[in-house]
Design goal:
The protein is an all-alpha fold and 192 residues long. Helix 1 packs across helix 2, helix 5 packs across helix 8 and helix 6 packs across helix 7. Helices cover 69% and strands 0% of the residues. It folds into two domains: 112 residues, Rna Polymerase Sigma Factor, Chain: A (Orthogonal Bundle), CATH 1.10.1740; 73 residues, Arc Repressor Mutant, subunit A, CATH 1.10.10.
């Protein structure tokens, strides 16, 4: 068992010293994960990678016994916490009292037209909620692959399934999410 896995298990069991030793070991990976999640967020985001890492870590360690049994489970839980934080922030910014009924535009001297963001976190979250309601394992695969950045083999080990099953389901998941997040599908989902 690796040092991170040992500390993850001990922190999960409530060992405060292990939780304190864990952060420096996983901080770099959590920060990379946070930066990749923040890369697709629209302009005007005030949350920085460091703050996202710290908020996610506080949520993880403050839960009591989360039942982590491996490094992969810990990073999946961290990814889930980051997803929740980003969704909460997007909803908060979308609230009318925060100017959510107005379109935010940031202009700089060299670019008069802002291109739309590559990723809409709320649309992604809605699509993931629909996917998880259909098949919870596929939702877990997204957490491990997309949010935690695990590869097929690591995801398969964390879920106790074969690598080929992860690959097959990942292909389905990508097609499903693409279909759910297309503008036409979003209009249908809002109407229902």
């Amino acid at each position: 068992m690796g040092e991170v896995t040992r500390l993850v298990r001990a922190a999960g069991d409530g060992d405060v010293k292990a939780a304190a030793e864990l952060l420096p070991l996983v901080y770099g990976e959590l920060r990379s994960l946070a930066q990749s999640r923040l890369a697709g967020i629209p302009p005007g985001n005030t949350l920085q990678a460091t703050a996202l890492v710290h908020e996610a870590y506080v949520r993880l360690i403050g839960k009591g016994d989360p039942g982590w049994d491996s490094r992969g489970h810990f990073f999946a839980a961290a990814a889930q916490a980051m997803r929740q934080i980003l969704v909460e922030q997007a909803r908060r910014k979308g609230a009318v009292k925060h100017g959510g009924d107005r379109k935010r535009v940031e202009l700089n001297d060299s670019e008069a037209v802002i291109k739309p963001p590559n990723e809409d976190i709320l649309a992604l979250d809605e699509a993931l909620v629909r996917l998880e309601s259909l098949d919870s394992r596929k939702g877990k695969i997204v957490m491990f692959r997309y949010f935690a950045g695990l590869n097929d083999a690591e995801t398969a080990a964390a879920l106790g399934i074969s690598v080929s099953t992860v690959g097959r389901e990942w292909r389905f998941i990508r097609a499903f999410l693409y279909g759910q997040m297309s503008p036409r599908s979003q209009d249908r989902n809002r109407a229902s």
